[in-house]
Amino acid sequence: MEIDSVLADALPATIALHAPNLKENLTVINADAMKIDSLPHNPTHLVANLPYNVSVPVVLHFLETFPSIREILVMVQSEVADRMAAVPGSKIYGIPSVKLTWYGEVDKAGLVGRNVFWPAPNVDSGLVRLVRKDRNLDPELRETLFSVVDAAFGQRRKTLRTALGSALGSPQEVEVLLRSAGIDPGLRGEQLSLADFVAIALQAKKVT
């Protein structure tokens, strides 16, 4: 899949030249990855070199759109890779970390130095692997969960009692909901695991 028409047109010839035995296995789709909602076959793997500004949205879009995808391996800017695979409690843990973990197990699979590219970019790259977990992913729960995550990290320095107001109501209502979910309202989003966010989302669904 390639959005650039020039590159998309060049790919078949490039494969025919350098890997002629594989050319029959190649199908090039000249399109914006964010607008793809169907493919000729159900994909099981996603392997991509993604630009910084769309890396996480593209991965999330494909995970949501194609449940058949079992494993993902993407190359992104090194700092983005760190955020995608970050764990609770770290300064770089945030929206990408939680949302990707909702779909599966995420880890950094390697580093790619800038010197392997021509022309050399100004940043290093990292490989991120996601292996999808086999569990029933309720679309409504996911929508609520992602709204809670967006709110929690939208005001990162504020406690959950205040930060979740945009998604769950007044500070007083939020505090009651959080305590019912077993979560301390004085915590910040970066201190919560995926399980904590799921507990909040489940409680939110009960009261709405």
Write the layout of secondary structure elements.
Elements: H1 5-18, E1 45-49, H2 55-65, E2 71-77, H3 78-84, H4 95-103, E3 104-112, E4 125-132, H5 139-154, H6 160-163, H7 165-168, H8 171-180, H9 194-207
Parallel strand pairs: 1-2
Antiparallel strand pairs: 2-4, 3-4
What key attributes describe this structure?
single chain, 208 residues, alpha+beta, Rossmann fold, Helicase, Ruva Protein, domain 3, 3 domains, four-stranded mixed beta sheet, 9 helices, 4 strands, 43% helix, 14% strand, elongated, S-adenosyl-L-methionine, RNA-binding, rRNA (adenine-N6,N6-)-dimethyltransferase activity, rRNA_Ade_methylase_Trfase_N
Q: What does this 3D model show about the protein?
A:
With 208 residues, this protein is α+β, with helices and mostly antiparallel strands. The chain folds into three domains: 1-30, no CATH class; 32-132, Vaccinia Virus protein VP39 (Rossmann fold, 3-Layer(aba) Sandwich); 139-207, Helicase, Ruva Protein, domain 3. The protein has nine helices and four strands. Strand 1, helix 2 and strand 2 form a beta-alpha-beta unit. The longest helix is centred in the last third of the chain and has 16 residues, at 139-154. The mean pLDDT is 94.
The N- and C-terminal alpha carbons lie at a distance of 40 Å
| Cross-sheet strand order for the largest sheet | 1-2-4-3
Global structural class: alpha+beta
Beta-strand share of residues: 5-15%
How many alpha or pi helices? 9
Number of E-state strands: 4
Instruction: List the uncertain runs.
Output: none
Q: Averaged pLDDT, please?
A: 94
Largest beta-sheet characterization: 4 strands, mixed
> What's the helix-strand series?
HEHEHHEEHHHHH
Pfam families: RrnaAD
GO molecular function: RNA binding; rRNA (adenine-N6,N6-)-dimethyltransferase activity
Keywords: Methyltransferase, RNA-binding, S-adenosyl-L-methionine, Transferase
Domain Ribosomal RNA adenine methylase transferase N-terminal: 2-134
